[in-house]
Amino acid sequence: MQNSEAMALSAALLAAAGELTQRIHEGVVARGFEGVRPAHGFAFARLAPGGATVTDLAVHLGVTKQAASQLVDELVRKGYVERRPHPGDARARLIVLTGRGWECTRAAEEAAAEVVGGWLDVLGEGEVRALGDRLGRIAPYGPIRPAW
Questions:
Q1: 22-78 confidence digits (pLDDT tens)
Q2: CA distances (Å), 35 to each of 17, 40, 41, 80, 120, in order?
Q3: Which site among 13, 66, 112, 137 is 20 to 30 Å from 76 CA-CA?
Q4: Full-model pTM
Q5: CA of 19: how far to CAs of 25, 58, 74, 83, in Å?
Q6: What angle do CA 39, 73, 111 make, to 5 degrees?
């Protein structure tokens, strides 16, 4: 593959990721979750499985612990997350999604399904499944985080 072809492929993937992020965000806002930003969604992706510490979240987002702590403070104020005692570390706090945080996460899943539905119209189900399989082989584990 020539460098120009590699750059074109890179640009297409970045454009698709950017559009996907923006359209999910727009779908979440349209479903009544005002005051959220795409960065919140990347945090929710890390918190959803079972919570995380601020340090875990900082690593996931690729930011400082202080920046992650500020993000958590904002999400607490907005009612999307809460701090709980950490079950395995008395010195740490576990950040978990609240009911509103889970509702927002479900809204993002619905918005993502709408976007992918548009891809189905363009590519067909087989092509979209193949695309998912191939991208999964390239980036199997994530993390799903913003490119600051």
A1: 999 999 999 999 889 988 998 998 898 889 999 999 998 889 999 999 999 999 999
A2: 22, 10, 12, 11, 30
A3: 112
A4: 0.84
A5: 10, 24, 25, 32
A6: 30
